[in-house]
Design goal:
This protein has 4 domains: 1-138, no CATH class; 171-261, Threonyl-tRNA Synthetase, Chain A, domain 2; 270-546, P-loop containing nucleotide triphosphate hydrolases (Rossmann fold); 568-658, Winged helix-like DNA-binding domain superfamily/Winged helix DNA-binding domain (Arc Repressor Mutant, subunit A, Orthogonal Bundle), CATH 1.10.10. It is α+β, with helices and mostly antiparallel strands. 32% of the residues lie in helices and 13% in strands. The strands form 5 sheets. A 9-stranded mixed sheet has the order 8-7-15-14-13-9-12-11-10. Strands 1-2-6-5 form a 4-stranded antiparallel sheet. Strands 3-4 form a two-stranded antiparallel ribbon.
């Protein structure tokens, strides 16, 4: 209601309705010429808890019905604010009523209708849940300015992963085995006492303290540790075990560890390790679950401190399950903005199931000839990140992301997973060794980490340079002691049981630690992939992802017309991977050159022949490096030279070919 003289009858009717609905919001004055009536009305208002000042006698516009006003509309000059206190017992704090001039509009601050409208049940504010249809509302600032960035929701691992199997221990059986060990050692002249028994999911460790022997003169001499370690075959026979392993001595303990397989092994699930405090206390985004030790303690590791991991083991030893468990650990804790993956799977069956998740920079690489290009791109990305660190004054990726400006995209970690190193070393050994060694030596600060697996840990696959830059290694069951020495620099892996039984050697441990690796099933992997694919699908059409290489880089990805000026590349809506991988550009020029070679007549053929005759050897990688050509073209030149009798046939392994003439 308003204050004025002689308002029309419709206004009086509305004033009466407003008084009936909300007595607190009554008009402080009624239009009358009687001073006594006005004074009586003011007294009634004071009793109701509302104080009003006598307005200045100025002409006012004709009163209009009170109606809701949109936030974006201009203020209504004919309706000054009436702010009730709302409680008659509290001190009067309402602002006095001020009558504006007829030609001057009231400012929005003075014309706020909020308190009056809020107290009236018949009036609804625009933007409230009960707003009637058709009332205009002002758009929000975020909707009118820009589309918000995609926010990913991390999955609940409890709903995707299952728990491991329970295990019951036979105490009488453990005591019986301990007595058998003591009797066997006593019979072979190396007495010892079992002072500790540690039961794990697959292995039970018996801690044997060497005893003393009587020598001449009444003196005692303690049994040598090596004397107990030499009795492994005799102990295995006495215990009737499939295999035993003796750790002499156990690091940090005062006994020799005799590890005997359990009659009923248990399964260690990924969920069990992720729920343990050993995993949750790792604050790094690259925390990975490994397994349980021989005493049942969950073991986890931080990939950023490793900073690279080398895995070796024969078929069926659990190597591929370990790789999947590492990937699952990262997928369950990180969004695509935090961690990106590059996966290489020459076997085409182990990692291709991850295609479609938004964490992938590109689809899983399955062609061997593209893997060298992948590693080259990773080295260039590493160099570009170091340039960004230098410009920003940062030392590593954590420091760089910590000092980002508001609105800038954080730099993600990149985890490169290569499922089979042996195939790559057979294809291009020198170039592979050089690129892997450089990445492993320098990429830690840039947030790029390698996880490489192989089932053939021979010296021509795991070379000395590669092994020197991979301090963290995991050895599953291998064929013999030689392979164990290649991967761990000591024997022991040849005595493992398989099916997840591993020896884990971290960079700061003096000796490898025996673990039972976590198990993640195909169904659990499919559940995770399905979840992240659904997260990817809800973001279609996707916003461009900032390119991870500079515009002038030779490995520039294929760009759309709209993204060419912004340094971004478009991703496919189904898989979240680039339509063209970064490294595919590396071989475009080589592929064009390959078209020039028809029936072996290549413009560089004579130069290649002269070079191999001068060096006395020939190989594809040699031609690639010296002539600076692609793999396909170099392989064709080698084939032509072999057909013409210039070089001999391919030899076993990666040795260069012999030059015949």
């Amino acid at each position: 209601s308003v204050i004025g003289a002689n308002p029309p009858k419709p206004a009086e009717k509305e004033t009466q309705e407003t008084e009936n609905a909300a007595p607190v919001a009554e008009s402080p004055q009624q239009p009358t010429d009687s001073t006594a009536s006005r004074q009586d009305r003011l007294n009634e208002l004071r009793q109701g808890g509302i104080r009003a000042e006598t307005p200045v006698s100025t002409p006012t516009p004709v009163a209009e019905p009170l109606r809701p006003r949109p936030f974006s509309a201009a203020p209504i000059p004919s309706k000054p604010a009436i702010t009730p206190n709302g409680d008659a017992n509290t001190p009067d704090t309402a602002s006095p009523i001020k009558q504006p001039a007829a030609s001057v509009p009231i400012t929005p601050a003075a014309a706020s209708i909020g308190p009056v409208v809020a107290d009236n049940p018949k009036i609804v504010l625009p933007g409230s849940p009960d707003i009637p249809p058709g009332v205009p509302t002002a758009p929000t600032a975020t909707a009118s300015q820009s589309r918000p960035r995609k926010v990913y929701t991390l999955p609940d691992y409890r709903s995707l992963l299952s728990s491991g199997s329970e295990q019951d221990f036979d105490r009488e059986g453990l005591v019986k085995r301990a007595r058998t060990i003591e009797e066997t050692l006593q019979s072979f002249g190396a007495p010892g006492r079992v002072i500790e028994i540690n039961t794990g999911p697959v292995i039970t460790q018996f801690g044997v303290e060497p005893d003393y022997l009587q020598i001449r003169g009444g003196k005692k001499s303690r049994v040598k540790v090596s004397a107990i370690a030499q009795l492994d075959k005799d102990l295995q026979l006495a215990l009737g075990a499939k295999a035993i392993r003796i750790e002499a001595p156990v690091p940090g303990k005062g006994f020799v560890g005799i590890e005997v397989p359990n009659d009923q092994p248990a399964t260690v699930s990924l969920r069990d390790v992720m729920e343990a405090k050993e995993f949750t206390r790792i604050k790094s985004p690259l925390a990975i679950a490994l397994g349980q030790s021989v005493d049942g303690t969950p073991v986890s590791a931080d990939l950023t401190s490793m900073p690279h991991l080398l895995i070796a083991g024969t078929t069926g030893s659990g190597k591929s399950v370990c790789v999947n468990a590492i990937i699952a650990s990262l997928l369950l804790r990180n969004s695509p903005d935090q961690v990106k993956f590059i996966m290489v799977d020459p076997k085409r069956v182990e990692l291709t199931g991850y295609n479609g998740i938004p964490h992938l920079i590109a689809p899983v690489v399955v062609e061997l000839e593209r893997i060298v290009g992948v590693l080259k791109w990773v080295t260039r990305e590493m160099d570009e990140r170091y340039k960004k660190f230098s410009n920003a004054g940062a030392r590593n990726i954590e420091d760089f992301n910590r000092h980002l400006s508001q609105g800038d995209e954080m730099m993600p970690y990149i985890v490169v997973i290569i499922d089979e190193l042996a195939d790559l070393m057979m294809l291009a050994p020198e170039e592979t060794e050089r690129t892997i060694t450089r990445i492993a030596a320098l990429a830690r600060a840039t947030g790029i980490h390698l996880v490489i697996a192989t089932q053939r840990p021979s010296v021509d696959v795991v070379t000395g340079l590669i092994k020197a830059n991979f301090p963290a290694r995991i050895a599953f069951a291998v064929a013999g002691g030689v392979d164990s020495r290649v991967i761990l620099d000591q024997p022991g892996a040849e005595r493992l049981l398989g099916r997840g039984d591993m020896l884990y050697m971290s960079g700061d441990s003096p000796a490898p630690q025996r673990l039972q690796g976590v198990f993640v099933s195909d169904m659990e992997i499919n559940n995770m992939v399905r979840y992240w694919r659904s997260q990817q699908a809800t973001d279609a059409p996707q916003r461009p992802i900032t390119a991870l290489v500079m515009d002038d880089s030779p490995a520039e990805p294929a760009r759309s017309t709209s993204a060419r000026t912004t340094g971004t590349f478009q991703t496919s809506s189904s898989s979240g991977a680039p339509q063209q991988a970064f490294w595919d550009k590396d071989n475009e020029d080589d592929d064009d050159d390959d078209n020039d070679a028809v029936d072996g007549e290549d413009e560089m053929y004579e130069e290649a022949v002269e070079m191999v005759r001068r060096l006395g050897k020939a190989s594809v990688s040699l031609l690639q490096r010296r002539l600076r050509i692609g793999y396909t073209r170099a392989a064709r030149l080698i084939d032509v030279m072999e057909e013409r009798g210039i070089i001999g046939p391919a030899t076993e392994g990666s040795k260069p070919r012999e030059v015949l003439k």
